[in-house]
Amino acid sequence: MTEPNIQSGPRNVTTPPLPDGEQAAKAPAAPPKVARACLSQPQELDVLIRSRYPIIYIESWEEERVEKCLLKIAKARHKDFFTWTITEGIVRADVESTQVAHKSSKTTDPLAALDAVLEHVQSAIFLFKDFHRFTEENRSNLAVIRRLRDVAYHLRDSYKTIVIVAPATRIASDLSKDVTVFPFSLPNQADFSLLIDRIVDDVKDNPKVSVTLTPDERERILEAARGLTLKEAENVFAKTLVLNGRLSADDISLIFSEKQQIIRKNGLLEYYNTNETIKHVAGLDNLKSWLVKRKIAFTKKAHDFGLPAPKGLLLLGVQGCGKSLCAKAISALWEQPLLRFDLGRLFSGLVGSSEENVRAAIQVAESVAPAILWIDEIDKALGGSSQDAGGSDGGTSARVFGTLLTWLSEKTAPVFVIATANNISRLPPELLRKGRFDEIFFVDLPDLNERKGIFQVHLAKRRWRPADFDLDALARKADGFSGAEIEEVVVSALFDAFSENKKLSTEILLNAITQTVPLSRTMSEELGRLRNWASGRARMASHITLREVDETKRKIEF
Q1: 3-state SS of 245-308?
Q2: What is the pLDDT of residues 4-20, one digit of tens each?
């Protein structure tokens, strides 16, 4: 099919004519209008090509997936399809597998490749790979940038389109009006579902491999794979089959290991491996109930019901009472990777680099979503974000805080944020309003029953039978102790017993408690202010119960 004769004047956005014999007897009715939000990603790309956008820039690591999408569009529109790389030049990519693609070493040079695009007569789509090195702001690229602008001008009056695919967006300011950036998102659950179907079909005749997934297990695997490219997902599924000879929901940890690689390569976030489970959290019944209810919010059934993905949780309270432990336990409960966001690591000496680091870290977290983002002791990290402290660091903390606040309000990716804080006075009021976090919980000192549970957990973790100890006496004696202080009591008692070559006993534990002064006594005034602030402002993580009479008996001398 030859290039239609284009007259000068307004651009014609109609599609190329169909081959002879396929023209309709009469002009077809105008297609119904489709809202942009209803278009799929390939459909949006097809609309841009049909509208004769000359240069389309796609930021994506998935060259193969982008190429397959463009090849389908080219075939549907009866266009030739070519790819360009700096090693092979322009290669025709729409030939049959039995044919040999013609490679032109003369077009490996970017300027020669752009000239070849202009010289091509027929309708075509040209996919340029790794061309971002020649479109970034650099004096050595002046000739290529100028030629690309000339090509963009000429392509507006043709049925040819240049598509640039690159892992990063680097567009010189001179090209800002000639290049259209198209967001090519990561695969969705439907894409991963097709991938699993293909894998199942490939291994169905292998007696050593089993892929048996219930609908619920399949959905859990598809949800865990979100944030991976198709190639990464295919690799981790293959790794699972090789290691275990099966693919099931029990292999979600292997999928997380692939996401761990993505995070390690970035260096701004820390992938936090933890063996803590919700069973290791004693007490905090209100918080546990809240978390269990929201575990199902990430399923397709919940989405169809109208439930949004939870945004986040702010845990306030006494130091050592399990706020960080809860963050680790949620990761296991929800079967999602836990990313530790160390804000202190992001601050850099270069002006503007700290804000850029925050944006880069947020982008990484969203790329592996669904995930849990843990910001520990946010009150210390953002202590300089208030107006009173704004001059102490040149306003860097305030700008970083502003970037974080905007993201917390506007984020759409299923990244659940858990922030912990001890000092309420250092938290800016903007952080506490609804919409940034779903709920604010106050974690107080454990009561009698919770202290018994904490002793049970730490004794069992160290291979001692809790039933062999008087837990009631230990819990009463440890009045005012936090969870961390109770753990330290157990560790200290173990040292005492081991050094004296004795078996751990209730007496040794009671002696360790006596030798420990809890923080609640040394900072009783601060604890009182914290509780007064939380009253009516935050939700209690534990059921509100009266203090046990045994703990507060009044001593009267007769």
Answers
A1: CEECHHHHHHHHHHHHHHHHHHCCCEECCCCCCHHHCCCCHHHHHHHHHHHHHHCHHHHHHCCC
A2: 433 333 454 444 444 44
